[in-house]
Protein 1
Amino acid sequence: MFLAKLLVTIVPAFFVYRNIVNAPDWDIGDLYRLFSVEGILPFTFALVCLAASNFTACLQWKLLLERQGVHLNYGHLLKLYYVGLFFNNFMPGNVGGDVKKVYDIRMQGGQDTVGAGLTATFFDRLYGLFFVTLFALAMGALFFVHDETQRSFIWPSIWIFLGFCALFAGLCSRRIGRLCTNVMSRFLPQSIGERLVHMFERFTHFRSFKLWCQISLLSFATQALRIFVHFYCGIAVGVTLSISWYFYYIPLVAIVSALPISIGGFGPRELLAQTLFARAGVASLESVVIQLLAYFVSLILSLFGAFVFLLGGKSSTAKAVR
């Protein structure tokens, strides 16, 4: 599996490199000219935006955990969230941090919290990707639907959006969940079938209009701030592109980055960003540097999670477990 991910990482990275060096008048000095003193301020804004998005994202995770019956202090939960970010960024994969968060929740409340932590963390990740897709659809409908060269990129967002809607319906609907478990129980051992039934029951805890309103507002703030991270990274390297382009393209890049098909999202993410932003007139080098700079911003902030993990202080305990 690791070798397959390594291949999926290296092959797109090679094409990214080739596209850069094959550009007319390419010179290694172009890379150094991207960075200047004027870029420090927008880079700082990018750090602030990502830090703020982590606070809202952690609050969303807290709300989902509480619906599963796990109640933890927000300050302590924020530390666990940053530890998860650290593992996501520094482990050879992009789901290691989610596994670490589920493990930490289990250590706080015992064996019964494994399902609660897994359900809340999985749903949290899915809903973030779902909501960022809404941004792409909104920008496409507002600014790009009449542009023949850009209109085709609305369709991937539409299909992803419909796929998420079907998935949420299956996870949160008791009838669909019961039907799926009945079908799968015929082909799976009884113990696994019982776990699937229990898992679908946990997802039905999210059937709350108030909860969906809360996490929608939080996801709006979180995903918008994270797109602004790329926008400010673009300004830092001298790319003066309207924010609407970022809201249109970055969701597709985020979806590809979230797929566990490469090492840390590298390779496919840069190749897709390079291909998309070229249609907006951004040079290959700049489009790749924007993605790498945004990733560097994430690395800097996740170092706080490294300190929390290494210090390993006394942790709070879960107040309630359903």
Protein 2
Amino acid sequence: MVFKRLLGSLGVGGPTVDTVLDPGAVRPGGALTGQVHLKGGDADFDIEHITLELMARVEAEHEEGESEGVAVFERFIVGGGFRLAAGEVRSVPFNGMLPWETPVTELYGQGLGIVLGVRTELAVAGAKDKGDLDQLTVAPLPVQEAILEALGQLGFGFKSADLEFGHIRGTGQQLPFYQEIELTPSPQYAHQANEIELTFLATPGGMEVILEADKRGGLFSEGHDTVTRFTVSHDGIEHQDWNTLVDGWIRQLVEHRAPHGSHGHEGHYGHHSGHGHDDHHHGGHRSGPGMGTAVAAGAAGLAVGVVGGMVAAEVVDEVGDFFEGDEEEEEG
């Protein structure tokens, strides 16, 4: 589906814009490439700038409950400063870098229920139009895929994924939101945890892995949440025993008994180095309902499915319907 929208601020006879992303998924920290196709209107127009905005559907928690909205997390100016003649057809190529913390939207080609988009803003004669909107597909980094693969082989199942507005304390988080991947525990840990939540915060030099366990209560104790953080490198992935490493992380997470505020164990594994910090959980890092549905986890890795595929979602007034054109929609 290709979305083409007339510049609403200019009315009938204005230029049209159609942004086409290069095929295939991109990765966090990787290049986003494609073409912005322009077609002149009934008169000449001065194109002041063409800007791409990366957008995400996020969930926010507040006193009244949860709400959904849109966060713009990156902007690229890809062209401008030229006159588009009446009826002229022109293409503007672009090449922008995704933030390293860009959420992952698919695993092994299956959608996780995360909604990202690229919106094109065209500034013409002092008026701006935020019209063309295209779906953005992001595949995991190799180290992220290795960790998810290991979790699948260890018997953890995919439950859901969402984006939470806010900041995870004690981390180097840069974006105004973070991604949570919710997992059902493997049989080995089912008696200790109701759910495991996983967040990746990647940087050029490595990645923070935040694990949270919703721990089951005992006969004389209430359940509670614990959080553990580790760092991993992007290098030497093929030389690491990820199953053993990730199982050690989970074991430390669910079996940790240290008092509140204590530091976790300092660890070294292979030629990677990592550290963990454990504490009891206090607000702000709870998951909301996601769109994903658990399907399977087996020897081939974490198998993920979404019932009915990824569904376009209602969002704030700024963009109307995310991925549902309310003006002019054409198939391409």
Protein 3
Amino acid sequence: MGEKQTITVFGATGSQGGGLVRAILADPESGFAVRAVTRHSDSPQARELTRLGAEVVQADMDDEASLAAAFEHAYGAYLVTNFWEHMSAEREKAQALALARAASHAGIQHAIWSTLEDTRDCVPLEDTRMPTLQEHYKVPHFDGKAEADHYFTEEGVPTTFLRTTFYWENLLTIAAPRRGEDGVLELVLPMGDRRLSGIAVADIGKTALAVFKRDTDLIAATVSIAGEHLTVADMAAALTETVGEPVRYRPVTADAFRGLGFPGADETGNMFQYYADCADRFTAARDLAAIRDLNPALQDFGTWLAAHRDELRTALT
């Protein structure tokens, strides 16, 4: 095999980027080497990536000048921003523009931009069923990314637009079942009986690697991914089997969820309301058979639960 082509991966110490870094390192026959980008190259997470065999470089999406070295001599790039760090769609868009400019200047031959749907295509700004946030958005962390898509096209970056979805790993943290007043574990989400598209974080990285392996086939394409579409009641039933005690689904209204008052409750409530109100079009965009064709190891919810049984039992005790 000849010299490996370098893939620059942003968010390398986070969920999506970290998943791709590990997918590349686990596949020595892929033809790719990985350059992991982080703002903190001396962090324990960055040192672990170095130990695993990644080249680690320091750069900051808020400092466009710092990005050039991250892209230098790279064939491809995985580009992801983190809305939840600052909760500003405008800042996220500025970061995306900086990435697009730097990737264009470096002559990146294939970029994957981690993006999401524009929720206003389904719930227009004037629609009062959910509040407008940050003046211009219904779900800012969706809509800001969608608005940024055109930066990559206009900057001439050969790009695949990868649309992700709800991480099942959230069930270990921010969306973990909580004990109700009677002590029974509850999933409290405003989804009604609509299906929620979910995915294992590792499969985002594995599917992204599969996209890179397809060479130019998917440039300019939008690839929307999920591992399975399930009602929350079905998720609760599967969790019950996995953790060995009852987990029930307690549906609430989106207004009640937004009223919970935690940081980002409005954003998260709007997100779940979008997932519910626009479920048919959102799930239809994610053809599980087509995704499995790209990533034959794609996990369904049951497979993910089995792999995380111990973590779940520990988190829920």
